[in-house]
Design a protein that fits this description.
Blueprint: E1 10-13, E2 22-29, E3 34-37, E4 42-47, E5 56-61, E6 64-65, E7 69-73, E8 76-78, E9 80-85, E10 88-93
Antiparallel strand pairs: 1-2, 1-7, 2-3, 3-6, 4-5, 7-8, 9-10
Length: about 100
């Protein structure tokens, strides 16, 4: 199945404590149906000191379910569809109909 959300996409959070927040997708975890979005779902992790890193409390983004985010096109959330143009499969925004992959 083709990916509707890809690394580098700008998304808006639809549900959860960070509802309404916008950010860029840093990582996609397709096997878990989750994405990591910058500045969203920040958790505190207690990190043990190693030879290369200091220990302490480290704040970082945790993955959220892909169903809780929507692609942001022209500042508004939209669903994603697919269309074949010139022999290539491209993503389109359902709200506006414009091609996302350029």
């Amino acid at each position: 199945m083709a990916a509707k959300i890809k690394k580098g996409d700008k998304v808006v959070v639809l549900a959860g404590k960070n509802r309404g927040a916008e950010g860029e997708v840093l990582r996609v975890l397709p096997q878990d149906d989750r994405v990591v979005v910058s500045g969203v779902n920040i958790v505190a992790k207690h990190q043990k000191q190693t030879a290369s890193e200091r220990g302490g409390i480290v704040r970082r983004e945790a993955p959220i379910h892909v169903s809780n985010v929507a692609l942001c096109v022209d500042g508004r959330p939209t669903r994603v569809g697919f269309k074949v143009e010139d022999g290539k499969k491209v993503r389109i925004a359902k709200r506006s109909g414009q091609v996302i992959d350029v």
